[in-house]
Amino acid sequence: MRRYRRYVLPTSGGQALIILSSFFMSFLGVFRVLPLLPLQILWINLFDGIFFAMPLINEPLDSDMLKKPPRDPKEKIINKIFIKKVVSSQWQWHFQVFRFFTLQVGP
Q: Transmembrane region positions (predicted)?
């Protein structure tokens, strides 16, 4: 479950951040064209859903998973360190996409 959380939150949040900011940047006139077309968004979701999830499939199973005690009920599922990691990876992904876009098309 932790591995899945580490995968889903940064990628989904990064996609949402890219889509929202591209809409607002084109609406405000920063870009002459919309940076992401609907078909490109679908391709990003398809690529992300298939190829980024492949490492989760190939990870070794925990043979002693049932022997481990359950996690502490007071332990938070999402803590501050996890949130910082998710937010930093989302922003890194966001800036890389827009840097690539501005190199290809221009501001």
A: 7-31, 37-57
**What residues have CB less than 8 Å from 73, skipping those under 6 apart?**
none
Q: Nearest-CA neighbor of 36 among 8, 51, 16?
A: 16
What is the pLDDT at residue 106? 60
HEC secondary structure over 5-65: HHHHHHHHHHHHHHHHHHHHHHHCCCCCCCCCCHHHHHHHHHHHHHHCCHHHHHCCCCCCH
Cα 45 vs. chain centroid, distance in angstroms?
A: 10
pLDDT along the chain (107 residues), means of 10: 71 78 79 73 77 74 79 83 84 77 66
Question: Domain locations in the chain?
Answer: 2-57+79-104
Alpha-carbon gap, residue 103 to 106, rounded angstroms: 6
